[in-house]
Amino acid sequence: MSNVQTPIDTSSWSPAEKRIFELKSNSAVTYSYGTIQQLRFEMAMRASTVAAAEALSQSGLQFATFSEAKCNELYWNLTESGGFRIRSDTTPAAGIRDIFTNGRKYATECATATLIVIYKAVLDSINEAVFNSLYSDLLLYDWHPDDHLPLIGRTGIHNSYPGDLLYFKNPDFNPETPEWRGENVIKIDDNLYYGHPFGIVTAERIISGLNRNRRPGSFRSAYLTDDIITPDYLYLSQFAPDMRTNIFARIGVQYFVVPLPKS
Q: Which helix (H) or strand (E) holds 227?
């Protein structure tokens, strides 16, 4: 029997999920998914990433170099290198949530802040017990994600979407302040990004801030690079509570659901 194509029903999706879905659907690039659940998981986690970035920007999280980093030691142990390692007498989920609740007790730089957002989005997208099991020895430090948080890199900034991890490079940063060599950000919307400590601002604001930290005499501007990093949504989707494996979906120029033939 031939496959039947039917439109994807997004009526129960959140406005943020629908918007991201429409952006990807209208792209000239075609994105394929093994199941409708995998597609929905990505849209939901992207929306959760944006929400987590907005929440972290309001949490009171402070900016600091690794040598001056601090954390709430009820949940985390501060490592010699300035990272946060989860205490054995609490859970990773509780530790992540505390950063958003008691942000003023924490200080770190932009890369760690970006990963905190991603971990919160994962926590909001999968079962909490599974989260605690996957990240039982969680370390928050620079650009060092856990093995169970695989990241995928690609290029093509014109095909970036809310929830993507992007990077502003400051090629002539002042060697005396290497923390301003660039800014890791999460895309929120068109020309709107979350970057610590800037908050949620435009590209122009981030570039202006980086340019104030160039080496003396330099006039070469900071810029948004073409690099895009995303969590491996396919890998993470296997931990979603409602994961099933019987539908194929594609979004891009067109989108549809293809039920597998009955045996």
A: strand 227-231
Contact 142, 84 (CB under 8 A): no
Is the pTM higher than 0.85? The answer reads yes
Q: Which residues pair with 76 in a beta bridge?
A: 86
CB crowding 148-173: b at 16 or more within 10 Å, else e: bbeeeeeeeeeebbbbbbbbbebebb
Q: What is the pLDDT of residues 43-79, one digit of tens each?
A: 999 999 999 999 999 999 999 999 999 999 999 999 9
List phi, psi (to 5°) of 53: -65, -45
Concatenating the DSSP letter of every residue in 57-75 gives HTTTPEE--GGG-B--TTT
- Residue 76's H or E segment, with its range, is strand 76-78
User: Which residues lie across from 173 on neighbouring strands?
Assistant: 214
Q: Which helix (H) or strand (E) holds 184?
A: strand 182-189
H/E run at residue 85: strand 84-86
Residues 252, 24: Cα–Cα separation, whole Å: 6
